[in-house]
Prior knowledge:
The chain is of the alpha+beta class.
Amino acid sequence: MASFRFFLSFLFIFFIPFSTAIPREVIYDAADVLTDAGYVSMSLTLEIIAEPLLEQSPSATVFAPSDSAFKKYGQPSLDLLRFHFVMLPLPFQSFRRLPAGAKLPTMFTGQSLTVTTSPPDHAISINNIKVTPSPIYDDGILLVYGIDRFFDTGYEYRGPNQRPNSNPISSCTAMNRTMNSSNSFDQAVEMLKTSGYSAMASFLGMQLSGDISRNGITVFAPTDVNVINRIVEFQDYPSFFRRHVVPCKFVWDDLVNFGDGTVLPTFLEGFTINISRSGGVLIFNTVPVFFPNAFDNDRVVVHGVSDVLTVQDEATTSSDVFSEDDQNVFDPGEF
């Protein structure tokens, strides 16, 4: 218990910078740039609502509707405006790599935007609305993209609806036959440390560096803020982290090909991750991925998730989906 208290103290001391608000000067600077770019209505709106909205956020991405959109729609509600604020920075090069179906959490509680860009398209689209090909404003912590109309809060993404994978273990082995033996685990740890996943990075470095088989691992990484908010609920913090790691490497293209009901094992014995879809968006134990393929090398892939993974209700556990004879559940012993 003493070590657990020390760990919590370390988290709260180490992650104080993550609660820092975006400076007021940055918001005003972005508003000035928006005015110069012809987004006058959103510029005025940003000056009025951005500071209270972003007071607990260290970074954000804003989607700015055009002046014609404001004229056509009229005065938008505060909730609709919140729907255009995403709680993470999306640099263009990272943004364009997000696959269709990736979910972006917004400041409108319980609502997310969905990437709808198709692979052949060069332009990025969100909720089927094209985004300006580069940010109108970008200072590293606050980014603003332009859109020609307001996002629809009722939009539903129509993605694939596959059947559960009949033999994911074989799929894992086949997909990773070419994995080389380079020592690339440290790369994942360093990326996590510098991208807002320091708690997960520390755990991986201390606990799993010797546990990765030739099939690699998949990490579903909650941000440091999510960890701080939820880890106090767990008495055994190693088990908290082990439930977020799957003993097989699955990039986003692999995961989207698994059907609803596919069950993945984790490094925490008895804890599994159930794949489902909501409005076409891929969900893992009720938690969506908001940054697919945040990191990927020959041994490790990291997917950023919007919250910590917890046990599902009995109605959706793997025992209700599959019988003991089903081959759809990974056996960590196979690795």
